[in-house]
TrEMBL record:
Pfam families: DDE_Tnp_1_6 (PF13751), DUF772 (PF05598). It comes from Parageobacillus thermoglucosidasius (Geobacillus thermoglucosidasius). Residues 17-111 form the Transposase InsH N-terminal domain. NCBIfam families: transpos_IS1182. InterPro entries: IS1182_transpos, Tnp_DDE_dom, Transposase_InsH_N. Transmembrane segments: none annotated. This is Transposase. Residues 323-435 form the Transposase DDE domain. Coiled coil: none annotated.
Length: 465
């Protein structure tokens, strides 16, 4: 049967700790800001109203988990032991000195079996909504990145699985290729039918949802990726999404931006990304959405002679390029792989060249997305791009560092992507609450660091200059 403590009962229990608890503790500040009635509304559907014995107040379980993630305790068992001997923790729970702290197994069952994982995302959304109502979020600039979370799985227990997947030709690439071919009087390529392909995958027998990552270990270890979006004004976390370590960030970024847009009601004017998001398709989608993207340049390894690299070719006209040694390259064809091929205007011009590899002429290839690459380069080298380059270390990288150093997010506590997602949601919510309480505490000293106040400061500085 669903049971919860009344506010009067909680206040009576807290009177016993008046001379023992720390009024300046971060949990006391969080308790003043939180609307616990909305938390009760999220938890009530998972408990029967009239059947069975009265339950422990579910809000106590939520507060125990908040204490664990705030202090970075490794286990629920250790957290319950700390609560037994810490007056401020007991004050935060609202239990009397004679009440027992709930058993650690009850907290674990509440987290894993009783409550749906989507509740934690809804709770994160509520906290973010309260922060937005206070005016601490900015629609100007966001930053996105991903970090690796080591999975709770033995890297030596692995099996090889053959996975069958459908391979479909990209329609936008084929359209760009056929446009170029038709300009030169060549026959357009017909679209290929979808086909099935097999791929060998190394999976963990301990946690099948984890992906193999060779980023920090040559032999590979199993891990997850935490894809995160933060607001650069006060570094509030807007989204934190967990996938296997084999899923790159540029594939899911647009979907997460739409999710945050649904959450806060707007999309950013600018977004800051690192080299892992250097992708032409992503840049084109961001451009269509009207978002200025700063992407760090990614250097792809090519087996080219240092004196005859692709970046050293000069474009003379639309379909004519000149190599570093002065050889003229003209358009030859466009392939399904998404490249325009250029060959020497005079056959055999590369024979005897010191940078030639073999007796054949070189084939110079240009991507069909070269126009978007050029616009990305201009944005990166612009004055605004140089300013945005300095944003990442103090925002998204700092957010990841805080999660790992202070809140125990360097390793996953649970197995399965849904359980790991719960850990990430609670950690992100705690980080936002800490920042929110700090900004609210500064208001009593006359410091209102809201987005509207920051805009006024910018206008005054621009008028004075």
């Amino acid at each position: 049967m669903y049971y919860y403590q009344s506010n009067l009962e909680i206040q009576q229990n807290r009177q016993a700790y008046e001379s023992m608890y720390d009024p300046n503790h971060i949990l006391v500040q969080i308790d003043k800001l939180m609307d616990w009635n909305s938390v009760y509304q999220l938890l009530e559907p998972f408990y029967p109203s009239t059947i069975g014995r009265p339950t422990i107040d579910p809000l106590i379980f939520v507060k125990i988990l908040m204490i664990q993630y705030l202090e970075g305790f490794r286990s629920v068992r250790f957290t319950c032991k700390q609560i037994q001997q810490h007056a401020t923790y007991r004050w935060f729970l609202g239990i009397s000195p004679t009440d027992k702290v709930p058993c650690h197994s009850s907290v674990s069952k509440f987290l894993r079996h009783r409550v749906d994982p989507d509740v934690w995302e809804a709770l994160f959304d509520h906290v973010l909504q309260w922060i937005q109502e206070d005016g601490f979020l900015s629609p100007d600039t966001w930053a996105a990145d991903e970090t690796e979370l080591k999975a709770n799985a033995n890297k030596r227990k692995r099996i090889q699985v053959i996975q069958t997947m459908a391979v479909k030709e990209e329609e936008d690439v084929l359209q760009l290729v056929n446009e170029k071919r038709q300009q030169h009087g060549k026959k357009p390529l017909a679209p290929k039918a979808e086909k099935l392909a097999t791929k060998k995958m190394i999976c963990s027998t301990t946690d099948p949802d984890a992906g193999l990552s060779v980023k920090h270990d040559p032999r590979g270890l199993f891990a997850f990726h935490d894809h995160r979006i933060v607001d650069t004004l006060h570094n509030f976390i807007l989204d934190a999404y967990v996938t296997a370590a084999t899923v790159p960030g540029h594939r899911i970024l647009m979907g997460r931006i739409e999710r945050v847009e649904h959450r806060v009601g707007y999309s950013p004017e600018e977004i800051v990304l690192d080299a892992g998001y250097y992708n032409a398709r992503l840049a084109r989608e961001l451009e269509k959405k009207g978002i200025l993207a700063y992407m760090s340049y990614r250097r792809f390894h090519r087996k080219e002679h240092p004196d005859c690299r692709s970046v050293k070719f000069q474009q003379v006209t639309d379909d004519v390029y000149a190599c570093p040694f002065g050889v003229k390259f003209t358009y030859s064809t466009s392939t399904r792989s998404g490249y325009h091929e250029y060959k020497p205007a005079v056959k055999g011009s590369c024979v005897g060249c010191p940078a030639a590899k073999g007796a054949k002429d070189r084939v110079f290839r240009v991507s069909v997305h070269q126009d978007i690459y050029e616009r990305m380069r201009k944005q990166r080298l612009s004055m605004r791009g140089k300013v945005l380059r300095s944003v990442r270390p103090s925002t998204i990288e700092r957010s990841f560092a805080e999660s790992k150093e202070l809140h125990g997010l360097r390793f996953t506590r649970y197995r399965g992507v849904r359980q790991v997602q719960i850990q990430v949601w609670i950690t992100a919510m705690i980080q936002n609450l800490k920042k929110w309480t700090k900004l609210r505490s500064l208001q009593q000293y006359g410091l209102y660091l809201t987005y509207q106040m920051e805009e006024k400061k910018k206008r005054k500085s621009s008028h004075s200059s």
